[in-house]
């Protein structure tokens, strides 16, 4: 009489091998998730600043981007002099919400001007940011990424040497 199936020892060996492989791969997966999250936050902030600049040029009106660099950071754009980027409908352009929030992200934001609430103002018609150029530094466990706004209003992304998130080095 022939036996079919696997013995208990064979099943336990397979389960042990699978658990070892999963345990070894978990840190890599966690790093991947954190890297993707940092990259997404950077891209969202870059998009917000570029759209604010483009609308300032197109509508020939000054657009203000409010940056609140606290533990619960946020960034919002408006045609008004100020907006509360923590309020959902407070920061908008052309009736479209323009906000990036750092709530529960594990990513910290710092502004080179070291102000709790800073403004970047894009001049209407030209899109320049004279007097409000800055570098926003986003820091996570996986590394550091930056959104750099110069006096001409150009917005660019970069990362430090140790961060491999697919951005050029600063």
What features would you describe in this structure?
By secondary structure, this protein is α+β, with helices and mostly antiparallel strands. It is 31% helix and 28% strand. The chain is built from one helix and ten strands; from the N terminus they run H-E-E-E-E-E-E-E-E-E-E. It has one helix at 8-59, and strands spanning 63-68, 74-78, 92-93, 96-97, 99-101, 108-111, 117-122, 134-140, 143-149, 155-159. The strands form three sheets. A four-stranded antiparallel sheet has the order 5-2-1-7, covered by helices on one side. It has a four-stranded antiparallel sheet with strand order 6-8-9-10, with helices on one face. A hairpin with a 2-residue loop joins strand 8 and strand 9 (143-149). The longest helix is centred in the N-terminal third of the chain and has 52 residues, at 8-59. The protein is elongated, with a radius of gyration of 23 Å. The model has no long low-confidence stretch (mean pLDDT 87). It comes from Alteromonas ponticola. It holds the Pfam family GspH. Residues 47-153 form the General secretion pathway GspH domain.
